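Q: My collaborator sent me two sequences in one message, no labels, and asked for predicted structures for both. Can we handle them in order? The first one she listed is below.
A: Yes, handling them in the order given. First sequence, followed by its structure tokens:
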Amino acid sequence: MREEWQKMEEEWLAPWAARSRESKGRLRPEAECPVRTCYQRDRDRIIHTKAFRRLMHKAQVFLHPQSEHFRTRLTHTLELAQIARTAARALHLNEDLTEAIAMGHDLGHTPFGHAGERALAELYPGFAHNKHSLRIVDHLEKDNRGLNLSFEVRDGILNHSGDQGIPQTLEGKLVRLCDRVAYLNHDIDDAIRAGLIRQQALPPAAMFFGESQSERINAMVLDLVDNSRNQPLIQMSPAAAEALTELRRFMFDAVYLNPQKLAEEQQARQIIRDLYAYYLENPHLLPPEHTQYPLQTSVVDYIAGMTDKFAIEHYLSIFPEKRLSL
């Protein structure tokens, strides 16, 4: 079955797409699966991790929403995977590699979204969720044995965000761009639901793509496909790329840096800082699975893996005198 899949890849995929037969391999050699290609196997390994399951209780933008209709890191991941796979299919790229990268890209996100990430980066310089996602799949999952993923999936996970690197595959580049398409659109939807912004207040950059979320996503994907088809590039038209950048700038001003959100994030950052200091002073209270690395690293691994709910409840059990509005 795997060989049949690989033959279909040869017939279907664009010349510049990643082929599972040509993967650069895993950190540790292992026998091939008789049914699944290496990328299909990697996707399955990611989905079955504890880190993936915890994403359902980690915030996307709104830290403690009163409605269950707000996105979490898990629903963001699923929306991204759907968007990226649709584009990959249209471009004759490897859908399995695309999906595996999308499923694993945010495994390393901390509790409380980017607020928690910034707090840990202040305490532990160099921390970033994309780097921690790679650390999870390389080391922390499966009782500190890691998942032993293929090079291309690991590369896409590490380089899906930030300025330090660009994915080596077109599939990784596609996930990187579709991540922005996904989060900008669903964050707009959630911000309207939360009352932070109104539909009528959206900038011309949003209207450039359409009036509704589905119209905007469809327009962005069609533009991406039209401007990347039949060439080894992942790109949007100059006008669409500029509109996407303007829309992102609007979201930072109106939503991500909104005073209401920042007040909420201050409490989240305080939780992270206090937990970090507490475990540095009480390393004997760390769970046994988080004692195999240097102390600071172990503390960061433990805190970064917490869900929002667990972090809040754990914090209040340690500091019962504290009062939170989260």
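Q: And the one she listed second?
A: Here it is, processed independently of the first:
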Amino acid sequence: MTSKSKKAIILLSGGLDSTTTLAIAKSMGYHPLALTFRYGQRHEIELEASKRVAEYYGIEEQVTIDINLQVFGRSALTADIEVPKNRTLEEVSTGIPITYVPARNTIFLSYGLAFAEVSDANDLFIGVNALDYSGYPDCRAEYITAYEKMANLATKVGVEGHNFTIHTPLIHLSKAQIIRKGIELGVDYGLTHSCYDPAPGGRACGTCDSCLLRKKGFEEAEIEDPIEYE
């Protein structure tokens, strides 16, 4: 069954994964509403990318939420902690890195749930990935399953039987597979931003974990990455 004209909330950071997720939702016939977060991240330039992506896809409503996760810190993305650079891919895929932001996806999904409920949307899309995901615990399938169950217990919509569904179309794909899917759907990856520690002019550093995973994905997909690196 297609979902023509059905609304869906897309968590849109402006990164490669969330942009591909948006393209997939559109291809499934959903009418997307975008939700973006300014949470004190050092790579706040990603908000500019999210606006470019939203405009490219003709998103009629993009809501940007301000949350100060810097008050908690404990992450290289929200505190004065050095972003890891030049790690091997084996190191990147081992353990939970210091770029993990405590409870970030739980917080984001909660806002998404509220936005969905007031927008008469029963579908949320999030671009989490359990293969090239840098060890983040809130990117795993079992986490999403648990959150979806909670969402349907904790909302008026869920209690009334109109269940929420959290879509994770990228969760079992490699970065190369994600990129190939995006290209198939016409995604312009030149609009996106992935770097955790961009240079003052906004150019990607090319050596943080996120840049390394992005570069690896494009190399394996045998597609040229359209963005510039330092």
